[in-house]
Design goal:
- The protein is mostly beta strands.
- The protein has a single domain, classed as Jelly Rolls, CATH 2.60.120.
- The N and C termini lie far apart (38 Å).
- 6% of the residues lie in helices and 43% in strands.
- The chain contains one helix and 13 strands; from the N terminus they run E-E-E-E-E-E-E-E-E-E-E-E-E-H.
- The structure holds calcium ion (2 copies).
- One calcium ion binds next to loops.
- The site of one calcium ion (CA) has 6 residues, from loops.
Length: 199
């Protein structure tokens, strides 16, 4: 177990923090407004086709580029974020397709680490992404153990699509389970863990 009281880096500004050896504290928010924003994320071009997640200046968002010949298998994984048990966290992000007539596909997982095998907890099942309008997804997240967690956006678009676009990735600590009164109120919400709430 590490102590996190020395975490001053994240206070100093998101623009130049490094993910190496340190976890960030919630709230975490990334709206990909500049090229350096994606540097903290881990990009895994699993199908090794050099078409993968990158910062996209046209959308000011993270995008995964199409391949004419094969489907995508590419992860965009957040830096490590320190999460504690007994708290309810809210993960949100928005997703759209680059072109209305080209359907994309995504799934979202989390786990501890920034490798494919780290992505063990499903947040969003395989979901078709249709249209140029962003769709916001929100998920309640609880963890069983104190630790550092990473959230992974997995592009699984078919071959010969266009761009899968993700923006406004946010995780906030929304409430504590400590107070008995609030536990009652939160149970219904916690029971929907991983459920999609599009708005
Ligand atoms: Ca943006
Ligand atoms: Ca790829």
């Amino acid at each position: 177990m590490k102590a996190y009281t020395e975490e001053t880096e994240s206070e100093e500004g998101f623009s130049n923090y490094k993910a190496v050896g340190h976890a960030l504290e919630a709230p975490f928010f990334e709206d990909f407004e500049d090229p350096s924003s994606i540097a903290l994320f881990t990009v895994l071009d699993v199908n090794n086709d050099e078409k993968t997640w990158e910062w996209n200046p046209s959308y000011e968002a993270a995008s995964c580029m199409f391949n004419e010949a094969q489907s995508a298998n590419d992860w965009l994984i957040t830096p490590s974020i320190h999460l504690e048990p007994n708290y309810l966290y809210n993960l949100s992000y928005k997703v759209r397709a680059g072109l209305a007539d080209y359907m994309e596909r995504i799934e979202v997982y989390y786990g501890q680490g920034n490798k494919v095998e780290s992505m063990t907890q499903k947040v969003l099942d395989k979901t078709d992404v249709i249209g140029e309008q962003y769709k916001v997804y929100e998920h309640d997240i609880t963890v069983g153990a104190d630790g550092n967690y990473n959230f992974g956006f997995h592009s699984i678009s078919d071959a010969d699509r266009y761009y899968l676009i993700v923006d406004s990735v946010q995780i906030v600590k929304s409430s504590s389970f400590a107070a008995p009164d609030s536990v009652q109120g939160l149970k219904a919400t916690a029971g929907e863990q991983g459920a999609m709430k599009a708005r």
